[in-house]
Amino acid sequence: MPSTTSPSLTVLASPSRYVQGKGALDELGAHLAALGRNPLIVADDTVWGLFSQQVTDALAATDLPTTRVGFERFATPEAVDSLVDVIAAGGHDVIVGLGGGSTIDAAKASGHLARIRWASVPTAASSDAPTSSLAVIYTADGEFVEYRFFPRNPDLALIDTRVVANAPVRFLAAGIGDALATWLEARATRRGTADAMAGGRPTRAGTALAELSWDILWENALPALDAVAAHVVTPALEAVVEANTLLSGLGFESGGLAAAHAIHNGLTAAPQTHGLTHGQKVNIGSLAQLILEGAPTAEIEDFIAFTTQVGLPNTLTEIGLSPEDRDEIEAVAEAATVEGETIHAMPFPVTAGQVVDALIATEGISRRVRSERGLPAPELYTGGGH
Predict the structure, then answer these.
(1) What is the reported pTM?
(2) In a designed cystine with 260, which of 38, 156, 181, 287 is the match (CB 3.0 to 4.6 A)?
(3) Which of 178, 195, 274, 386 is catalytic?
(4) Which residues of the chain have pLDDT under 70?
């Protein structure tokens, strides 16, 4: 995690401009024109196939050229360096990450290295990456490598709720899983002595935004998922998109990460989990963090019931593991507790052994709660998506 020169400093970080709403993508050109005249769009083939015409038209409306470069699945060091080369060769002055969190992170990392401006344009509300001043770097196989921190946030974060409403429901559910962790981690960081991801102690604003995200999700997540299933934009969906993207983004960066995201990073070391989304793995981390904290039984049980309704995993079975997979779970726990991981922002010391016990405990607790509340039993995850 980043550190500050003074333990008394608090820091709040945010994008220069955040734009959200139905039809926002049609206004992309107008917002990019304020940042540069030669944008580079980074998007994978699937995303570009869906939105190339809309983006081209939006840029043409402000006399901006459309230059797009493809992207693979993960923001790897090689992918970032390759984008830097493309930026230099084309003389681009602003880079746009169009798509998912890894695409956006790669755009941020390469824009920083190339010393140009950058914009985040997510096509689903599946994570809080779009607003932050950091990127998560992975191997080509999806194993966590490092966080890269930048001295500023995106110049623009723009999300079209009509686009979100037509994305798969599981993407919104993943964003909810990522955002639910924000308050759990921010409150833990606030009780401890560690810095938040922005490089200083948590601000009250960052912590409050994290809690607001939590409150919005508990009130609106289920009707928002219904809206996406029907491909419509409703006030509930607008609220959840803001919670997943802006409030969670500001909340984690200026409120702090703790055990949930560290356990997510550890889970990437298990090949069985590579087909899962970021938010699905984070949700396992959130439940394990609640167990580590000794949270009230009612809070743990309500969290299990709610995330089951959302469609998020809360058992090892649902991420391709089992309590008997001791070697794999120990490897996850060791990776989650390495020096510098965010788990050390918890207000008490956490060992790998404690993480092992918490992860194993998730299985029995979740199965009991789901049975008692008449919720579906866990199904075995076998890879290739969830």
Answers:
(1) 0.92
(2) 181
(3) 178
(4) 1-8, 384-386
